[in-house]
Every structure is written in C-alpha cells, then in structure tokens.
Amino acid sequence: MDAYIFPDNRLKKKMNDPTKTPLLLVSCGSFSPVTFLHLRMFTMAADYVKFTTNFEIIGGYFSPVSDAYKKAGLASAEHRVAMCQLAIDRSADKLMVDPWEANSEEYKPTAVVLDHFDYEINDVRKGIDTGDGNRKPVRIALLAGADLIQTMSTPGVWSEEDLDHILGKYGTFVIERAGTELPQFLEHLQPWKENIYVIQQLIPNEISSTKIRLFLKREMSVQYLIPAPVIEYIEQNHLYQDDGTASSTHSLTQEKGKEKVESSAS
After folding, report:
1. Cα separation, 76 vs 245, whole angstroms
2. Which end of the chain has fewer CB atoms surrounding its CB within 10 Å, N or C?
3. Which has the closest alpha carbon to 117: 161, 172, 60, 41?
4. What is the pTM of this model?
5. What pLDDT score was predicted for residue 135?
C-alpha cells in the first residue's frame, strides 16, 4: 500500500489514570454509508467503559472493508472512507478513520485487521504514556453490533481459530439490538465470555445502512439519519441512486476466512 500513514492525530498520548487499562476500540464494517448509529456505538461504548469497567479509552477507529468484499450496495472504498472522514471531522470524540483495510486489494479478515491495530499501537508506538515515565500496552478490542455475536455463535460461519484470536486475544464490546437474543447466542461463546462486554441500548436505534440506501433509491429524505456532510457527499457523487453503486452482487455467504459477516448497522 503506497504512502500509507497510520492516522493517530486524535489518539490520546497520555493516560488520565495510570491505574486503568488503556483501550482502543475498532469498528469494522462496510459503512455504505456511515450512519448516526455507527457514531453512537462509540458513544455508548464510552459510557459503558466509564461507568462499569476499569478501562480508559484512548481512541476509536472506523476500519471500512475493502472493495474485495464484493457486496451488493457497496460504494467504492474511496467513497466510504471519505464519508466516514466527513462524519467525524467535526466530532469532539477521539474518532479516526483508518484506510489500511479499505485500500487493500485483498479482503482482510477481522483478526488480521485487529492485528494491524495491535502492531501500530503497541509495536510501533510502544503503547501509551502512563504519565509517570512509563508506557503501557493498549488493549485492542472490536466494537460491533449484536448481530455479529449471532453469527459468531452459528456453527460453520466463523472458524474456531478466528474466534479464539478475536475473542480470546482481543475481545469485543457488543451493542444490543432489538430482536436479537443475546443471552442465547452468548451461551455458545462461553470460552470467551470474560472478553465479551454487552452494552445495552437505552434508547433503541434501528438505523441501518441498508435502510438508508433504500430511502435514497426511492428518493426519500435521509436528513437527521446520517450526518449532513455525508448527505452532501452522496448527492455530489450520485451514490446509491440504483444498484450500480454495488461493486458486485456476490452473496454474503462468501467467506471472510470463515467470517465474512457485516458488523451491526452496516
């Protein structure tokens, strides 16, 4: 990947409380387009972390999937990265967009993406300054919707090796979603239950990229469902007007190394 630079402009450089465990959240998905629910997921996770854990969030990243994902309704990686960037530009949060996965010519499994962040944060940058002259390794974790846990508990969708790598080494923060029987699905993931953090949606939000694309195709308004700069970008680039936006119409049952599944609201 030519001229790639890992974005760290909003990454926290020093911990507020060195007794806590530094945490970096990574959200993988299509983001075609990015919605307010995608943004809210980080906010809900931040509240959960603040009030119920001993973690301290040092940053959060959107990692849009590459064009090799070949999913119907998928705008090009260039457009999706640009829309994610527009969505966070005016945000006061520690959110960033990493184009590494999106710009890859090959499809990157989630485990590989998390390894990439672990390398950039803990190997290259040696973790984070604790404020007392020491540095601490940062915990990398996947931020996802409840539908992801559903697929993880379904036999044959994810390999045992990938599950152990993602849930065992990194862990995940899961946003509840209406209609998803989380307790039932979590029963099948007992070996990694200590690394799965379930976040309740106190105000249900059912916005999805699929619904946004449908609205746009029908020439219906999506105002207040996705950020205004993203709407402007979509209009300027004539995205989602018909099925031509898709890079392919391949089935979602294609494998991502046994885990080619969308994260929530994508």
Report:
1. 8
2. N
3. 60
4. 0.90
5. 97
Structure-model confidence comparison of residues 259 and 93, the more confident one: 93
- pLDDT per residue as tens digits for the range 150-170: 888 888 889 899 999 999 999
d(CA 223, CA 118) in angstroms, rounded, equals: 37
For 180, other C-beta atoms within 10 Å of its C-beta total: 18
Task: For 126-154, give one letter per residue: b (16+ CB within 10 A) or e.
Answer: ebbbbeeeeebebbbbbbbbbbbbbbbbe
pLDDT value of residue 72? 81
32-43 per-position pLDDT tens digit: 999 999 999 999
Q: Are 33 and 209 in contact (CB under 8 A)?
A: yes
Contact 77, 66 (CB under 8 A): yes
41-45: Cβ within 8 A, 24+ apart:
41/143, 41/145, 41/175, 41/264, 41/265, 42/93, 42/95, 42/143, 43/93, 44/175, 44/199, 44/201, 45/143, 45/173, 45/175, 45/199
Highest mean pLDDT: which range of 78-82, 183-187, 242-246? 78-82
Q: What are residue 62's phi and psi, to 5 degrees?
A: -90, 135
